[in-house]
Structures are given as structure tokens and as C-alpha cells.
Amino acid sequence: MDIMMSSYSEDMNDEYQKLLRRTRPPRVVIDNEACKNATVIRVDSANKHGILLEVVQVFADLNLIITKAYISSDGEWFMDVFNVTDQDGNKITDDELVDYIKKSLGPDSCFYYTMRGSIGVKAAASHSSIELIGCDRPGLLSEVSAVLTNLKCNVVNAEVWTHNGRAAAVVNVTDGESGLAISDDERLRSIKELLRHVLRGSDRWGKAKTVVTQGATHAARRLHQMMFADRDYERADSEDGKQRPDVNVVNWYDKDYSVVTIRCKDRPKLLFDTVFTLTDMDYVVFHANIDAEGPEAYQEYYIRHVDGSPVKSEAERQRVVQCLEAAIERRVSEV
Question: What keywords is this UniProt entry annotated with (predicted)?
């Protein structure tokens, strides 16, 4: 009965969100006159958990730089203002790119779906996606590549992150001869077993995992989730003196918010990484201020858990701090 009621509630919520979308469609304004050094992009829409992440992901996937942002989503309406440049610090003036942003975030976009449904969505099976996580060590990537070559797999693309002694990768492969996704179950089983053996390496606990799926996932999302599930945010004793991002979480009791502040060296996709982490941990961002015009980024989030409560305990506060630190550090090697 509980499962049926939960399913009914989710269906009703989806129908309500569809109604809001029809009556109050997203509005996107791209303005190159309002700011001297950046393109100002305003996004207004009916509010929904995860919508901020979907908007930020559009910018991250286009490798655009967010230098400033003001975010407000208290109530049923979502209003964001972003100052955005390209990787060279220039305004966004390319007509095709401007049109793409408008279509990606506007009334005809497909980004407006549930957070949980958006992660791990399978695309057309043009390749097989291999997810790997295990103990990091020198030469690991070469060994993985050698195994895939021996198994006659062609690597279409790959993304690899390392953090706190662990390594995670999402590798998209096709059959080396046909160029198609690998569909033979026995071959897929062999690929998983051999890669798991490589990943274990000298890790005496054998803590390694491989997963093969058909189609595509969003690599950065999956890597964050994989490393979070692997608890890479737990600090090793040898790293106690390591310089870390300045992350603080305090409760604003008058408003029932928890206020998260982050100060760290700025880098591409930093905002995506922190917003994804908060959203995936089931926190809702009601307001935020972002300033990354200099070498250091400042982020301020006013959050509550999806159940409406602020951070409830010291243990929860510490977990939020550690998880945000890990999210910031995982991608540092890309810079």
C-alpha cells in the first residue's frame, strides 16, 4: 500500500509540474549589453527540485565560465541570473551558441525533468559504457587500456578522476571491428572480470567494481556518484595536514536555513560540482550568491533538506563539509 501511495503521489506531482510548465513556461533572456565583461543570462521558470543543477549543467557541458550568479527559488518560481563568458573570457556572441542555449533552457527544452530520473538515463545504444572504480596507482590507466585493446575494444572517449587514493572512470567503447556497441553477454562478462582484476591491483581488500551498460550517462554525474558511494570523502590520516577548500556550514535559525559558504581557488565547472553534490545529497538550494571574477571563488548557498529541515546535527554538518571538499578536489587534476 505504501509503495502504491508513493507511486500515486509521484504521478500527481509530475502532472502538476507539467501543468505548471504549460501555464508558466521557462523564459530565457540573453543580454550582452547589461555587463561590460560578461554575457548576462536570465532564466525564469516554475520551480522544481534539481532544476538549478540542470541549468548549471547546460553551461558546464558547453565549457562556459560562470563569473557571477544570483539564484532564488523560494516558493514555486525559479529565478536565476548568470554572468557568463567563454573559456577565453569573452562574451557569448556566436549566434548558433546563443540559439542553442535558448533552446536548451527555454520552453521547448528537455532539461525540465526529475533529478532522479535524469541520472543514468540511457541513450541510444551506439556504444557500451564501462564504469570502473578501484585503488589508484601509477600505470593503472595504461593497464586498463591494454586490457581493452587485447579484448578488441575501441575507446570512443573516457573520463578519469582520482581522489583520496581511489580512481574512477567512465569509458565508452565499441567493438573494434564493427564499431557498434558490444552486445555479447559472455564478452561483456569477460571484460568486467578482467578489468576488476586489474583494478584490484595490490589492494588486499579487493575493493574494486566494474559495471557495463548500453547507451550513455552523464560522465561527471556518474563519477561524482561512484566516488561518493566509494566514500572517497573520508579523509586518510596521512592527509590531515593537507590544504583543503574552506567550506563552512552554519544554521540560520530565524529562517530555518543552513548557510553553506565555500572559498577556494576558482576553476572550470566548480559550480556544477558543488550544486550537483548538494542536490544529489537531497538538499534544496533556495538562494545562492556566486562570485568567481578573481582567482578565488566564493559560493554561498541557503539550503534545506528535501524534508524541509536545515542541517540537524554536528555529524550531518561534518558530512556536508567533507562531501563538498571531495567534490571540489576530484576534478582539480583536470586544470
Answer: Repeat
Last residue of a domain, one of 88, 117, 146: 117
Burial 211-242 (b: 16+ CB within 10 A, else e): ebbbbbbbbbbbbbbbbbebebbeeeeeeeee
Task: Specify whether 73 is located in the same domain as 152.
Answer: no
Is residue 233 assigned to a domain? no
Question: Range of 262's domain?
Answer: 246-330
Residue 227 lies in a domain: no
- Residue 265 belongs to a domain with what CATH number? 3.30.70.260
Quote the pTM value. 0.84
pLDDT tens sequence across 58-96: 999 999 999 999 999 877 888 999 999 999 999 999 999
Q: Does residue 228 lie within any of the structural domains?
A: no
Instruction: Give the whole-angstrom CA distance, residue 40 versus residue 28.
Output: 10
